[in-house]
Amino acid sequence: MLEINLSLFLSIIFSIIAINFFLRNNFMVLENNRITNIDGLRGYLAIGVFFHHYIITYGWKMTGLWERPANSFFNNLGVFSVCMFFIVTGYLFSRVILSENLNVYSFFKKRVYRLMPLYYLVIILMFLVVFIDSNFEFNVSLELLAKQIFMWLVFLRATMNDYANTSQVTAGVTWTLIYEWLFYLSVPVFFYLKRFKYLMFLIIFSLLYLSLNEVVFHSLNAKYMMLFFIGFIVYMVQDRIKFNFNFDTILMSTINLLLILLTIVFFDSYSVYHYLLLGLIFAMVVFGNSLFGLFKKPFSVALGEITYSIYLIHGIVLYILFTILFKDFVVNYGNVYFYILPLISILVVSISVITYKYIELPFMQKGKK
């Protein structure tokens, strides 16, 4: 356990060193219109998801089962990060919902250019991995294969070409995108519904009821709706209440760090208390807490810039390394697996910088035109 935790810590240091290298050599240029603290937070959330799947990959190779880590801390590296991602999304798009004007075409154009190019690149890479590992043989009918491809293109995961490990190629991370897109589709709805306050409140309370009871619609769990709503509440509080209080002090950073550790170490499932802690942690960041100045650092903001690339790319990197190229490495050298995590972190960050620079950024700029 101590060795794994040390490896995780060193991996964060190595990730920072790698991103600093790209910043110093002007391979990355930070934009001036970023929300610094939130961007600084997002980078570490993406790394948390990466660590989570690195540990799951170890268990998968040793037992043959792709399942959550038994240790709550290692499991919550992923759970905490994904929950916070949803809260961030709810917060960022609340200002769109509450704005005076909304150009629906422009809104969705930016979302498509922001998210789809990298996603489709990852899906293409996944297809290649599947067919290379299938010796380029068609194990299903062309009609079924076309249906499976279409499902992936619209975020509905399916077993590709009868390849059992299809989801593992991307570490299964694409499941969150369907929730993101459902939220994006609801943004114009809530924008126009806000004129009818009673109807809007009725819908919100209905969604909260479904969320708290974890009602499932065709494999979509309503509990994640609560997380978007938490982001909305934080935005409302920030927008309407002006705090004459400095949240960026050593004391407040200590409190926030303790809340983060409490949430990651001791909570093992979604609950109202879990949601409240997540909301409180995020609210403190929004109100100015930078966690001892960490989130304000250029390297943290830069990690935030490449968050989406880290999130989508790391699964393919892990799969190619430990399932395609070095298939038996984990079984034969399990004691070394965690010691090389810092080096894998450099690889993931470096690839993510490249995909951000040459895929994400150009398409984002096109989407803004």
Strand content: under 5%
Output the structural class.
mainly alpha
Characterize the biggest β-sheet: 2 strands, antiparallel
Rg for CA atoms: 21 Å
Side-by-side strand order of the widest sheet: 1-2
- The helical percent reads over 70%
Number of strands: 2
Overall morphology: globular
Q: How do the SSEs run, as a string of H and E?
A: HHHHHHHHHEEHHHHHHHH
Q: Which segments are poorly predicted (pLDDT under 50) over 5 or more consecutive residues?
A: none
Give the distance, in angstroms, between the N- and C-terminal Cα atoms. Answer: 50 Å
Number of helices: 17
Characteristic terms for this protein:
single chain; 369 residues; mainly alpha; two-stranded antiparallel sheet; globular
Fold topology:
Blueprint: H1 2-24, H2 36-63, H3 72-92, H4 94-97, H5 104-133, H6 142-153, H7 166-169, H8 175-193, H9 197-212, E1 216-217, E2 220-221, H10 223-240, H11 250-266, H12 272-286, H13 298-305, H14 307-325, H15 329-332, H16 334-337, H17 341-368
Antiparallel strand pairs: 1-2
